[in-house]
Amino acid sequence: MTQGRSGIRFDRVCVAYGGNTVLDSLELTVEPGEVMALLGPSGSGKTTALRAVAGFVRPASGRVFIGERDVTDLPPHRRGIGMVVQSYALFPHLRVADNVAFGMRAQKVPKAEIPGRVAEALELTGMAAYARRYPRELSGGQQQRVAIARALAIRPGVLLLDEPLSALDAQLRSGMLAELARLHRELPDVSILYVTHDQVEALTLADRIAVMDKARLQDVGTPQELYRTPRTEFTASFVGGANLLPVRVASGSVSFGQAELKVPTDGVAPGATATLCVRPHLVGLGDGPNALTGTVTEVQWRGSTHRLYVEVDGRQVKADVRELRQPPALGERATVHFAPEDAVLLRAGVTDDD
Length: 354
Ligand SMILES: Nc1ncnc2c1ncn2[C@@H]1O[C@H](COP(=O)(O)OP(=O)(O)OP(=O)(O)O)[C@@H](O)[C@H]1O
Ligand SMILES: [Mg+2]
Prior knowledge:
- By secondary structure, this protein is of the alpha+beta class.
- The chain has helices at about 45-55, 95-105, 115-125, 140-155, 170-185, 200-205, 225-230, 235-240; strands at about 10-15, 20-30, 35-40, 60-65, 70, 80-85, 160, 190-195, 210-215, 215-220, 245-250, 255, 260, 275-280, 285, 290-300, 305-310, 315-320, 335, 345.
- Helix content is about 25%, strand content about 35%.
C-alpha cells in the first residue's frame, strides 16, 4: 500500500529565515518503515526539518524526497504525509469522526470510502467509541489519539510527529509511547519522523536517532550506538547523562590528573588530549579498577538510586548507585571506580565544528 511512498530523504537541505540559516545542509535518509527520532535542544532546527518534509517551508537549496518522488516543489496536500503537531490542532466545532474525515475530504477521497476509513483509523487508535464527541469532551490523551487518527486516515506513506506527547503528563506520556510503538507494529511500512527533545522518547521508540544542534545534524545512529559509543561530547551528554573527563592518552591507558586509567584507546595517538566518557550508572562506589578518590560535594536521593557528585581534580564525577542505606556525607572523602570496558574515548574537538 505504501510501496514507493514511504521513506524520506533530505538531500543537502538548507532553510534560512531572513538570512539566518536554521537548517544547514541537512543530509539524512529515513528508510521505508523506519522510525527516526529527531532529537536536539530547543531552536536546533527540528521542527524546521519536519516542515520542510511537509511542505510548509521552502528550502533555500537542496531537495526533499518522499519515497522515490522529489516533492520539493509539491504543495503539502500532494505529498502523501500525515502530520501531528504538539497542539493537536483539532477543529473544535467538528465531531471526532468529522475531524478524522477532514484530511480525506481535502484529498478528494471518494465519498463512499470515507466512513470506512474513519472507522478504521479510530479503531487503530482505540477511539472508536468516541466518534460522535466534540474535542472539548475529550481528555488530552484522547485528543492526541484523534489527531493521530486524522493523520493516519489519509493512509500516508510518511508520518510526521512534532513533539506529539509534550502536552501530556508523565504517566499518559508513557502510555502513549507504548501506543505509538503498537501502532507502528500494525503499520510496519509507514516511515515515521518523530521530533522530540525528550531522550527517553527517542531511545524508546526510534530505530535510529538523528541528533541536531545549531541547525546541523551532529550524529545519527541506533539508540544503542549513540548511547554506548557516542562519537561526540554533544551526543554523549544529550543522549543519556555522561561524565566527560579531559584526559591525556597513553597506550592502553589515559591520565586524568594524577590518576592513570585503563581504557580502550584504539585509534587514538598517544600524547593526544581527549575526552573520556563514562555513564554515571556505570560508576560504582568504593575501590575497584580505575579508582578515583575525591570529595563528596552533593548527594541526591532519587528513589531507587543515589546520585553522588565526587570532586576529583577539579571535576565533578557523577555516580548513580543503588540506593544506599548510609550515603556518604558532604565533604567526606569517597572513592569511585569504573570498568575499563565501560569507558569510551572521544576525540577532542569533534564537537566544535565538523
Ligand atoms: N517562521 C520563522 N521565522 C523566523 N525564524 C524562525 C521561524 N521559524 C523558526 N525560526 C527559527 O529557526 C530556528 C529553528 O527553529 P525550530 O522551530 O526548527 O526549532 P526546534 O528545534 O523545533 O525547537 P523547539 O524544540 O523549541 O521546538 C530557531 O532559532 C527559530 O527561532
Ligand atoms: Mg520544534
